[in-house]
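Example 3.
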Amino acid sequence: MPMSSSYRERLFPVLKEIEANFGTPFHIYDEKGIRQTGMRLNQVFAELPGFREYFAVKALPNPRIMQIMQALGFGFDCSSSAELTLARQIGAGGDDLMFTSNNTSSADFEAAQRNGGCLLNLDDLSLVPKVPVMPETICFRYNPGPRRSGNSIIGNPVEAKYGVAHHQLVEAYRSAMKRGARRFGLHTMLASNELNYTYMVQTVQMLLDVAAWIGGELGIRFDFINMGGGLGIPYRPEDHPFDLEAMAKEIIRLFSDFNSRYGYAPRLYMESGRYMTGPHGVLVVQAINRKEIYRQYIGVDACMSALMRPAMYGAYHHIEVLNKPAGATTQVVDVVGSLCENNDKFAIQRELPRIEEGDLLIIQDTGAHGHAMGFNYNGKLRPQELLLRENGTVELIRRAESEADYLATLRFEPRQITPKRT
Ligand SMILES: *Cc1c(COP(=O)(O)O)cnc(C)c1O
């Protein structure tokens, strides 16, 4: 199921009033749903001491959402200097921050080690000598290569640019130890939108095996393993939801086996993005044009600058029309934006209740990798973001982009050089 019935029942009756006050389009997120998912995650891993989710900031980089995550006890997984700044501005720091970059620049390292630093997750052996000050705790991202097949979305690890190769891993930890690292983490991220929980259990098994192997080679213990994100959500009505409880049960058993064999267990970290917020956001748009040529088109007042996934990945996002229940007369339509790209479509040949100009469409599961991915191609601007609070209040948490924002980088000090040919 896409959007939960609880969110639908709280949102739909007030949507017209929200529209009247804020206008369309907007993403609106559900505080109650986000909290419930977060509490459920903490609950299923309650038996594992030190379990911690590091919310993947890139999924929904909004400080108000991040404060909800913070209240749940979560840290933040950041992969750029700007994401670190966002997290630090709400008071996160040190071990609340995991910095998982790749192709890391010296400016990235500088940003990571500023303001009391953070947990540093290195993407390659060659980066060890480039870390300005080797922190006491170091983590490496592991790429298992041919030892593991990636899931269908993220692809084959052999072709992935991320992580330290299997045969370089001992050397990576050894060289970090030579530079003074004393505590260790192990990270991987192999899947995206994976609905089969068994894949995640196998990933944890793999990490524990590697931790045991490296531990034996170097005589070290691991403080934590980080299983990455990638837990999937059911975008299509026929998709089965991810079985979080079953996954946690099997992972807890793996940790207890590890504990009996090695006399200790690392902590478990996770860095989920999509699973935490994806189902708890929708993009609300208004139909502004109906066009009937070879196909029927519904033109809406947002475009792919608000939601890239359908155009980029051919992703399905479920759509409902406000006040037009199933059973109404339907029509097969393409739901389109106004960008000059033919892939600017929220839905292709979708059977929907007959839509008239002025109708509100609720494009679902936009709470992760939605607004955040938007771009300004064709001068298209990103929409506002709203939060439906647990107490029923609706709060603006990001204003819409303006033309002034779009033009801002064109205001600068004039500067030119005349290069001399040699
Ligand atoms: C994108 C990303 C995540 C989050 O992925 P989801 O599919 O949203 O759970 C976690 N870790 C890293 C390193 C990522 O790049």
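The first strand starts at residue 26 and ends at 30. The chain has two domains: 31-277, 278-409.
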